[in-house]
Amino acid sequence: MGALKTFNKSLRNGLGRLVHVERYVCAVMLIIMTAITFVQVICRFVFHSPFSWSEEATLMLLVWFGYLCMPIDIYLDDHAAIFAFYNKTPARGRKFLDILRHLILLWFFIELTYYGVLLSQLNLRKIQPATGFSYIWRYLPLVVGGVLMSIYCFSNFLNVCMTPIDEYKAKDFASASFEEQVKQKVQEKGGVI
Questions:
Q1: Which of 70, 71, 77, 144 is deepest in the core (most CB within 10 A)?
Q2: CA 189 to CA 144: how far, in whole Å?
Q3: What's the distance, CA 57 to chain centroid?
Q4: CA dist 63 to 80, 108, 126, 136, Å?
Q5: Distance (Å, rounded) from C-alpha 101 to C-alpha 95?
Q6: Alpha-carbon distance 142 to 119, whole Å?
Q7: Range name among 46-55, 63-72, 76-85 with the lowest pLDDT average
Q8: Whether 143 contacts 116, CB under 8 Å
């Protein structure tokens, strides 16, 4: 178990650096999309001469942006959740639900990757009319995002498996009032009330 903890800790450190790079890439893509759209609007309404490629380029960047942002939320385990049932479950039940959640997500991300590969292969030779780029650039984000989400989800799964039940008992939401639950959740995520 000690070797597995060491492996997971080094894995999380490496993945944390990768997430840091992903955030910068996503920020740059957002800036580029905004600039292209702004210039396109100016060219269309002021100069009456829009670019033909701007919509395709923005759409392609938007797809990449979305499929690179989703893995960040998976890594942080920060996606939307309904805690009403979860909070009333005993510590062992919450651990079981977390394991089950990560296994279902992992299965979904593997399927996403598989079908993303198939879609990418189908669209490899098709060319976008305005930019001249292959359509694969619209479908490749499914593969890249699916692989990243699978890796991050597996890392989260290992974290949950190695988390002792005592830590789940320390976060016992069942006895806390709703306001206390909200405060605990906010503080757990790094916020301040």
A1: 71
A2: 27
A3: 22
A4: 20, 19, 17, 12
A5: 10
A6: 9
A7: 76-85
A8: yes
Q: Is the pLDDT of residue 175 over 60?
A: no
Beta-carbon contacts of 170 under 8 Å, excluding residues fewer than 6 positions away, are none
Structure tokens, 77: 């385990």
Give the whole-angstrom CA distance, residue 159 versus residue 77: 11
Closest by Cα among 170, 155, 153, 42 to 108: 153
Question: What is the chain's mean pLDDT, rounded?
Answer: 88
- Reply yes or no on whether the pLDDT at 135 is more than 80: yes
CA angle 62, 107, 161 (to 5 degrees): 110
Residues 73-88 pLDDT 10s: 999 987 767 777 777 8
Task: List, as own/partner pairs, every contact residues 54-57 make where C-beta atoms lie below 8 angstroms and the sequence separation is at least 24, other chains included.
Answer: 55/130, 56/128, 56/129, 56/130, 56/131, 56/133, 57/131
